[in-house]
């Protein structure tokens, strides 16, 4: 049986070495690489279709292991997650995020047997990660095996309407415009939060992802800033900088700084200052009617 490609994601080299040694005896798993941060793990996942991540909940940098789990939750072919932590304090949250298991490190080989059993009980997609597209073909084949056809009679006067509707449904040249409910879906702790646009103060780019900031909290999302600019632009948001998209309704002040620099401030108990790029200031003044 093919071994499941496994990635160790932990900031401590000693723990990574210990995990590699522990997993060496697991015939069902094959360790193919290590990562110290969530960003490194995501980069490696783009190149290798990993089936399992052994990941620390407390990764260094702006993205923790828990936030990494939230980001992976939006993927169709995502790896199973086994959290590796120093204590049990985050076990409940880990399982809420869909973790396959939670290991308190150091772990005994007998405890790993339980982890392997839990991984083996997962769906076939988790057991063996296949190349992109293979899962779709496999699922389609299974769907065809289970498929049944139900024939219903159509009245003569309804036949024309039915054929017309069918042609329209299959006409790929007619792109349907998606409905905008003016809420941004954000995956959080295993559930989807619908964040109203007016509650968003600004969006900050981070690599290929973004942080969405409100008055009280920030959310790590899988959206790219460019995509959010297209989505939120018609609703009063403006790209003031290559890294920042701002809700103009939340802006209370634009300040001129020495050296021809500009800064805007947003509302709230904690005043937030964001830079404005020189090439954007003219367009921003025009939008604001200045």
TrEMBL record:
Q: What is this protein called?
A: Transcriptional regulatory protein YpdB
Q: Which Pfam families match?
A: LytTR (PF04397), Response_reg (PF00072)
Which residues are in the Response regulatory domain?
A: 5-120
At the top level, the lineage of the source is Bacteria
Q: Which parts of the sequence belong to the HTH LytTR-type domain?
A: 184-290
Q: What is the lineage of its organism?
A: Bacteria, Pseudomonadati, Thermodesulfobacteriota, Desulfovibrionia, Desulfovibrionales
* Classification via SUPFAM superfamilies: CheY-like (SSF52172)
Q: Which gene encodes it?
A: ypdB
Which InterPro entries does this UniProt record tie to the protein? Answer: CheY-like_superfamily, LytR-like, LytTR_DNA-bd_dom, Sig_transdc_resp-reg_receiver
What SMART domains does the record tag this protein with?
LytTR, REC
GO MF terms held by the record:
DNA binding; phosphorelay response regulator activity
């Amino acid at each position: 049986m093919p071994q499941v490609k496994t990635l160790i994601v932990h900031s401590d080299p000693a723990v990574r070495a210990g995990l590699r040694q522990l997993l060496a005896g697991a015939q069902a798993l094959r360790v193919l690489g290590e990562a110290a941060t969530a960003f490194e793990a995501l980069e490696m996942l783009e190149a290798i279709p990993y089936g399992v991540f052994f990941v620390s909940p407390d990764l260094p940098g702006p993205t923790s292991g828990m936030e990494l789990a939230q980001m992976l939750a939006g993927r169709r072919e995502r790896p199973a997650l086994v959290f590796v932590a120093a204590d049990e304090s985050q076990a409940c949250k880990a399982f809420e995020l869909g973790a396959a298991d939670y290991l308190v490190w150091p772990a005994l080989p007998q405890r790993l047997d339980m982890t392997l059993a839990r991984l083996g009980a997962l769906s076939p997609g988790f057991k063996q990660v296949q190349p992109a597209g293979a899962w779709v073909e496999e699922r389609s084949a299974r769907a065809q095996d289970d498929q049944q056809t139900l024939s219903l009679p159509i009245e003569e006067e309804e036949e024309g309407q039915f054929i017309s509707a069918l042609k329209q449904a299959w006409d790929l040249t007619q792109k349907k415009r998606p409905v905008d409910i003016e809420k941004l879906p954000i995956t959080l702790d295993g559930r989807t939060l619908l964040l109203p646009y007016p509650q968003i103060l600004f969006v900050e780019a981070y690599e290929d992802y973004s942080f969405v900031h409100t008055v009280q909290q920030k959310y790590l999302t899988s959206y790219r800033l460019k995509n959010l600019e297209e989505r939120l632009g018609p609703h009063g948001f403006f790209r003031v900088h290559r890294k920042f998209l701002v809700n103009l309704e939340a802006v209370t002040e634009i300040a001129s700084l020495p050296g021809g620099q500009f800064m805007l401030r947003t509302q709230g108990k904690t005043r937030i200052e964001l830079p404005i790029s020189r090439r954007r200031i003219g367009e921003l003044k025009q939008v604001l009617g200045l």
